[in-house]
Amino acid sequence: MQPFSLLLLIASLACALPAKSVEHKLLTADNFSKTIATGYWFVEHFSPFCPHCRAFGPTWDALVEDYAGSSVNFAQVDCVVNGDLCDENGVTGYPEMQLYRAGALQVTFEGGRSYERVMLFIEEHTGVSKPSYSVPPPELPEHDLQTLHNERNPHGEVLALTPESFAGIVADGDVFVKFFAPWCGHCKKLAPIWEKLAKGLQHRVAVAEVNCEDYKSLCSSEGVTGFPMLFFYPASGKKTEYSGSRRVEAMKDWAERAVRPVFLELDYADLVQVVKDNSALYIAFHAPGVSLPPSLTQAARPLLGSPPLFISSAPELFTHFALPVTSDFHLIALKDGDTSAAAQLRFSAQTSVEDLSKWLQTHRLPLAMEISEGSFQEVMNAESRPLVVLVSVTASGVERDQVVETVRGLAAQWRRTNATQYTPAHGTRQVVFAWMDQERWTSWLKSMYGIKGPAQVVIVDHSRLVYFDTTRTGSHLTLDDASIFTALGDAMKGTLSVRHSENIVERLARSINNKLLAIERMVSDHPWATLSFFALGILVVFWVIRRLLMDEDYTHSYKSGKDARLD
Ligand SMILES: *[C@@H]1O[C@H](CO)[C@@H](O)[C@H](O)[C@H]1NC(C)=O
Ligand SMILES: *[C@@H]1O[C@H](CO)[C@@H](O)[C@H](O)[C@H]1NC(C)=O
């Protein structure tokens, strides 16, 4: 494994740790000249075994971080792996820093390696001074937003967007945008969190907001249907709605995954570890020397790193999964800590993006998992519209462990005996076995699914907002294969009686709300046609009702709990 891919792998495995996420560029003989061909490059030649290099590490990190987005680029060459390149560059000791301009060596850094000295050296030879963040401007003039954004959130602040600045920022990509209305309660709650997020994503991901009270038509053209609504706009590809947890850490992790490279390289030695660390993941196989087709990159990008996509041409991995080494490619989905393939696809450079994308979406979820605020939307609103066997568990203790074990066991049994006849390829529904903390979500589980204690089972069909809690004979579902597997079969056939996950009042409110939103949109799209007394009347009523009743997040259907929200 190349050092850079190892670094990526470690970064991905350690994403739960508050690791410094400075992005290092490691160059090899293959891409050195090509990479440094334009602009200024400050290159450190180092050896992982040299104590001076290690001592200089934190200073280097700080420099890379502080100059991110400036016109001076930073890169490293590992001289243990690239001895010849270091010889060619005339390196005589470690660490040795050289400044290149348009591919040509300008000058070698000498003397003490303090942050200050390096900074002055760079300024002297490039004219670029260290970007200073000490006095951030309070309000950014319109015309500065574009240039500023090229540096991806240099000040760690939320950018307030207007319809004019919006297009430019989104075109640059890697920006997380909050659409809000000043009067909405959940928006107010999110505001300080959003500021913390901007701070946490400094230099990496732009964090912005749009006031939908001021810019209605921008919000409706972006498909905003409730407040607050969070969209991530990647550097290329379509925007994605973020609907996970609204804790800073969760949003930060998610955004960091989203801007990570699409592919992570995998070696055989790391297989067990990555399978342990990811409840679902993909591996794309290519024969040595044959590169993966761009269609896979396009299909994988919208996943935004969850689940991660690894690539490999390691012979041991081909052997492990019994794959033939051909000019065709293979995709494998691994789930639930199992190192044997849960699904497999052979594809070629001609396979369409749509087909690849469909396959990736279909195999995105593990078979058994815990549902909490972060994963609720991901599971329930998955494109594959799974049926979810939902089991309540206690917060901790032996009892919880036993129930979770049972659920996992049922998932494994389903996979062995029934899953093949219920794979989406056969036109039927995917099944996910999940457990949820009943103590934490007491009132939510009760009002949503009538669950009143631990170890209760329902089968949820969230795409239709219904659930099943009895078998065809009318007895309550119990935590065993006979009860659950039969009910799953009946639910798929549509012969089981359903219950609605929302109560009547909520469904009514929702449908009224949808209608009012549609009217509001019509008004802003066709102002003259609808600028009548009638429409104005409705608008007035709408605003009054909304202010009275809807001062909360109404995008999600799971808000029925009195004291619990799943975000
Ligand atoms: C240079 O090549 C190495 C090895 O293939 C790779 O890990 C690294 O990402 C490349 N660096 C750049 C800046 O392209
Ligand atoms: C699952 O498989 C078992 C054993 O093969 C079978 O008895 C049962 O009917 C199957 N259930 C469904 C829903 O297909």
Strand order of the largest sheet: 16-18-17-19-20-21
- How many helices in DSSP terms? 21
**In the CATH hierarchy, what is the architecture of the largest domain at level 2?**
3-Layer(aba) Sandwich
- Please report the distance between the alpha carbons of the first and last residues: 39 Å
The CATH H-level superfamily of the largest domain is Glutaredoxin
**Annotation, overall tally of beta strands:** 21
CATH class of the largest domain: Alpha Beta
As for the number of domains, it is 4
Name the bound molecules: 2-acetamido-2-deoxy-beta-D-glucopyranose
Helix/strand-derived class? alpha/beta
Radius of gyration: 27 Å
Main pleated-sheet profile = 6 strands, mixed
GO cellular component, one term: endoplasmic reticulum membrane
Keywords: Membrane, Signal, Transmembrane, Transmembrane helix
Domain Thioredoxin: 8-127, 129-260
Protein name: Thioredoxin-domain-containing protein
